[in-house]
Specification:
It contains two helices and six strands. The chain has 133 residues and is α+β, with helices and mostly antiparallel strands. β5 and β6 form a beta hairpin. α1 crosses α2.
């Protein structure tokens, strides 16, 4: 079933049922309608809270090696001219405080020194947390 059609139907069903139950119980249709709408909206609120909690449990990017920059402060760099097409090129980030450069690939976050090979920095563990490589 398509969620775009199912959720509005769920919302309308809860609102109508709430209004009918509220009127039958003597509380009034408006109070029952409000309660039904709150019940219908609760799954969205719970999903949003779960999403926020997962963001704290597993941030998208790890903190910088210097420790002064967290995952929200990185700057995304444009792909280098020698890289493959934008869809296949790994994402590159730069720490604005210490100017270290990193390359992000699925499950890995490696440091990209100005000269020399890529230095492994962090990887995802079995439970999705970042761990030093």
């Amino acid at each position: 079933m398509n969620l775009e059609r199912a959720y509005p139907a769920w919302f309308a069903t809860c609102a109508i049922a709430g209004a009918l139950i509220g009127k039958t119980m003597g509380h009034g249709a408006i109070e029952g309608l409000t309660t039904g709408m709150l019940v219908a909206a609760s799954p969205i609120v719970l999903l949003a809270l779960g999403h926020v909690a997962m963001g704290f449990w597993r941030p998208v990017l790890p903190p910088c090696r210097c420790g002064r920059c967290n995952h929200r402060q990185y700057r995304l760099e444009a792909p280098a001219p020698g890289d493959t097409a934008a869809g296949g090129a790994p994402l590159r980030f730069r720490c604005p405080k210490c100017d270290r450069r990193y390359v992000f690939s699925p499950g890995r976050f490696d440091e990209l020194p100005s000269e020399g090979p890529v230095v492994p920095y962090m990887r995802h563990t079995k439970w999705g947390r970042w761990k030093l490589s």
